[in-house]
TrEMBL record:
Pfam families: Pyr_redox_2, Pyr_redox_dim. FAD binds at residues 139, 396. InterPro entries: Class-I_Pyr_Nuc-Dis_Oxidored, FAD/NAD-bd_sf, FAD/NAD-binding_dom, FAD/NAD-linked_Rdtase_dimer_sf, Pyr_nuc-diS_OxRdtase, Pyr_nucl-diS_OxRdtase_dimer. The keyword Flavoprotein applies. The lineage of its organism: Bacteria, Pseudomonadati, Pseudomonadota, Gammaproteobacteria, Moraxellales. One of its GO terms (molecular function) is flavin adenine dinucleotide binding. Its cofactor is FAD. This is Soluble pyridine nucleotide transhydrogenase. Conversion of NADPH, generated by peripheral catabolic pathways, to NADH, which can enter the respiratory chain for energy generation. It comes from Psychrobacter nivimaris. GO terms for cellular component: cytosol. It is found in: Cytoplasm. It is an enzyme of class 1 (oxidoreductase). NAD(+) binds at residues 268-275, 355. Keywords: Cytoplasm, FAD, Flavoprotein, NAD, NADP, Nucleotide-binding, Oxidoreductase.
Length: 549
């Protein structure tokens, strides 16, 4: 039996939904005449009434052992209030603005709840910025660079191979493959769930009418009962910089960098700045990392933040803290960054990575009485509802935490609130996964927070260099740190630095979620596979218990 949440997550449960699809081939957009209101009414068969039971028999899922049909949950709970019972005269029960992770999850939840839903996105492919310019390309790029670093370190290869610098867009060849595969996977989700996708820029005419620019100066209008804004974000571009200059980049444009540089400035030492510092040093570039704070990623546990700063320096990153741009001088083949402190830094190029802005300015929010903040973000309540009661928002456009992981869950939860699921809850606890080389991942409180709150905590540590698995796979640096209450042994925070950290963290996260079992003793009393990186939990737990008296 597939549970409700599991089927929501995979989105791939086949022909279980009863709205007609209008873009059968891919995420590609139907032509305007294909989506005209009149045709649509004929084409879209509203069969909400068919989805009445909680459990459905899935036609494609057959148990291989006894040939019986596998039951799946329809996505409703018995006490769900359904939009279909809201007697409305609109074409759609819900419209989703943006086909990124938040939009996709919202659309899947809505359609699985029997709603007639349409998704609008200006790209001709689904996946959002996350797939096309954010998470996926940067992580695929990071993996290629990681492989390159390991390859160069291996004496078996380095003798035979010539050391050659490679431009970024060539290293991205692998990333392009991953993007293609991701787009095709997600397109299938939309197709199988028969979700209509319209390509175009959406803007509001009023709180129940959307105008979609499907081609240059060609508009289509649709009406809807409820909407969810999941338009995501883009790099924040200050006016003092000319991003058309071939030596000035942001995190979108950097994916097209087609020349090799020796030296690059990264302005902004947030997650993007730090991840790219690893990527560039891995490619052999010299990096000046300009941080406008006094510590790298200062929301991290300071020991972890110190560790990444230390490793960056070892790899040749020059970190300049507490600095602020005055202006940038651009030349054909170099740039000079002038800092307010009077320093001047010359480099082949600059990557600006100083925050992001929500994509709200083209939405004509005034027409529905909404206003975004200075960074283009929308305010929502605990049910992801904006100040307008039929308009919801999720993902990067609402700010925190601006992660694809959370955007997906926020989209699903927002849709759950929209359909009236009684068990819907807002997303609250999100792990941090930072894909520097090595990785960083954390969940729960930091030492600084616990000290400020005067919680009597203790620390258990495991250094990767002592673990058999780490020695086998050649992990030289890394640490797992567990913070726990010294009286109750409750786990309060887990901080991991080292490769595989973003995977390792989930073991601790699962234990922390089990309220009755959330104690350090779990790791001592449970037999783990050996040798594994997960053994770090046992080692750290024993190390911590030895400190308790
Ligand atoms: C370089 C980089 C690396 C990242 N790495 C990670 C990572 O490793 N892990 C992680 O969890 N997160 C990562 N993130 C963050 C992650 O990409 C975002 O949190 C995620 O994309 C947010 O998803 P979303 O659905 O809110 O919006 P998006 O992915 O931004 O998608 C929004 C969609 O809305 C569309 N849209 C915009 N305007 C309109 C309009 N008017 N009408 C209709 N549609 C519109 C856009 O075309 C886009 O397709 C990274 C981000 C960047 C930039
Ligand atoms: N591995 C990941 O999870 C991952 C990877 C890359 C990006 N992201 C997401 O992308 C988002 C953007 O990353 P980023 O590195 O560009 O930005 P960031 O939010 O991490 O901050 C980068 C720098 O910009 C500054 N800054 C941010 N907001 C500002 C504001 N309103 N005014 C002035 N300065 C501000 C910060 O002080 C910091 O020095 C992050 O929120 C992050 O969640 C996540």
């Amino acid at each position: 039996m597939v549970s409700k949440s599991a089927s929501d997550e995979t989105n791939d449960t086949g022909k279980d939904i009863h709205t007609e699809v209008s873009n059968k081939s891919s995420g590609h957009v139907p032509s305007p005449e294909h989506t005209e209101g009149k045709n649509k009414k004929e084409k879209i068969e509203q069969t909400h009434e068919q989805v009445t039971d909680d459990v459905m028999h899935h036609p494609d899922l057959v148990n291989p052992l006894d040939d019986t049909r596998i039951d799946i949950k329809s996505g409703f709970t018995k006490d769900s209030r359904r939009l279909k019972s809201d007697d409305h005269e609109y074409e759609y029960d819900a419209v989703v603005l943006g086909a990124g992770p938040a939009g996709e999850a919202a659309a899947m939840k809505l359609t699985k709840s029997g709603k007639r839903v349409v998704v609008v996105d200006p790209r001709d492919q689904v996946g959002g910025n996350s797939t096309h310019v954010g998470t996926i390309p940067s992580k695929a790029l990071r993996q290629s660079v990681f492989n390159l670093i390991n390859f160069r370190r291996d004496p078996m290869f380095t003798k035979a191979m010539e050391y050659k610098q490679v431009p970024l867009n060539e290293v991205l060849a692998k990333a392009r493959q991953v993007i293609r595969r991701q787009v095709s996977t997600h397109t299938r989700f939309y197709e199988r769930n028969r979700i209509e996708v319209i390509q175009g820029w959406a803007s509001f005419i009023d709180a129940h009418t959307l105008r979609i620019e499907v081609d240059e100066n060609v508009y289509e209008t649709i009406t809807f009962n409820k909407a969810i804004i999941t338009v995501g974000s883009r790099p924040y571009r200050p006016e003092i910089l000319d991003f058309n200059h071939p030596r000035v980049f942001d995190s979108d444009k950097i994916l097209q960098m087609d020349y090799v540089v020796k030296k690059i400035i990264i302005y902004g030492a947030g997650v993007i700045g730090c991840e790219y510092a690893s990527i560039f040093t891995g490619l052999g570039y010299k990096v000046d990392l300009i941080n406008n704070q006094d510590q790298l990623l200062n929301y991290l546990d300071s020991e972890i933040s110190d560790a990444i700063a230390h490793d960056f320096r070892q790899f040749g990153v020059l970190i300049r803290s507490n600095e602020e741009i005055d202006h940038l001088e651009t030349h054909d083949d170099y740039v000079v960054l002038h800092l307010k402190s009077g320093k001047r830094i010359k480099s082949d190029a600059i990557l600006w990575s100083n925050g992001r802005s929500g994509n709200t300015e083209g939405l004509n929010l005034e027409a529905i009485g909404l206003k975004a903040n200075g960074r283009g973000q929308l305010k929502v309540d605990d049910t992801y509802c904006t100040d307008v009661d039929n308009i919801y928002a999720a993902g990067d456009v609402i700010g925190w935490p601006s992660l694809a992981s959370a955007a997906y869950d926020q989209g699903r939860c927002a849709a759950a609130f929209m359909v009236g699921d009684s068990d819907a809850e807002p997303v609250s606890s999100v792990p941090t996964g930072i894909y520097t080389i090595p990785e960083i991942s954390c969940i729960g409180k930091t030492e600084q927070e616990l000290t400020d709150e005067k919680v009597p905590y203790e620390v258990g540590q495991a250094f990767f260099k002592h673990l058999a698995r780490a020695q086998i796979i050649g992990e030289r640096s890394g640490v797992l740190k567990i913070l726990f209450h010294r009286d109750t042994l409750e786990i309060l925070g887990i901080h991991c630095y080292g490769n595989h950290a973003s995977e390792i963290i989930h073991i601790g996260q699962a234990v922390m979620k089990c309220k009755s079992n959330n104690t350090l003793e779990y790791f001592v009393n449970t037999t783990f596979n050996y040798p594994t990186m997960a053994e770090a939990y046992r080692v750290a737990a024993l190390n911590g218990l030895n400190r308790v008296f």
